Amino acid sequence: MNAPTKTADPTRGAEAVSACCASGLSQPIARADAEVLAALLKAVADPVRLQLVSIIKSSPTGEACVCDLTEPVGLSQPTVSHHLKILTKAGLLHREQRGTWAWFTINPQRMHDIQQLFSD
């Protein structure tokens, strides 16, 4: 019987991503840091999630209600909520409950961290 596979925790925090990769990928990184980064990148490595991030980021108010995100991506509300949960758990989005609906905004620090990975 195989031991369960341990998955990196993308919720380890933006501080961990900033700390390990402040200079991008211009220097070798430790395996543990690579696992955290891979989990973060996996969260955005989905076409629907990229769409959701772009819709929220480009919104005139910088936020979006889950009720307004289903039509643009052509998926049901439970499916969109699932994708938003993954993005929130990875720290890419902030979630605020307002009555019945959840509203989402971009976490600018986490986006900055992703940009820093690939900068010179």
Spell out the blueprint of helices and strands:
Elements: H1 14-20, H2 31-44, H3 47-58, E1 63-65, H4 70-73, H5 77-89, E2 93-98, E3 101-106, H6 108-117
Antiparallel strand pairs: 1-3, 2-3
Q: Mind explaining what this structure looks like?
A:
With 120 residues, the protein is an alpha+beta fold. It has a single domain, classed as Orthogonal Bundle (Arc Repressor Mutant, subunit A), CATH 1.10.10. Helix content is 50%, strand content 12%. The protein contains 6 helices and 3 strands. It has helices at 14-20, 31-44, 47-58, 70-73, 77-89, 108-117, and strands at residues 63-65, 93-98, 101-106. It has a 3-stranded antiparallel sheet with strand order 1-3-2. Strand 2 and strand 3 form a beta hairpin. Helix 3 crosses helix 5 (77-89). The longest helix has 14 residues, at 31-44. The N and C termini lie far apart (45 Å). Residues 1-11 have low confidence and may be disordered.
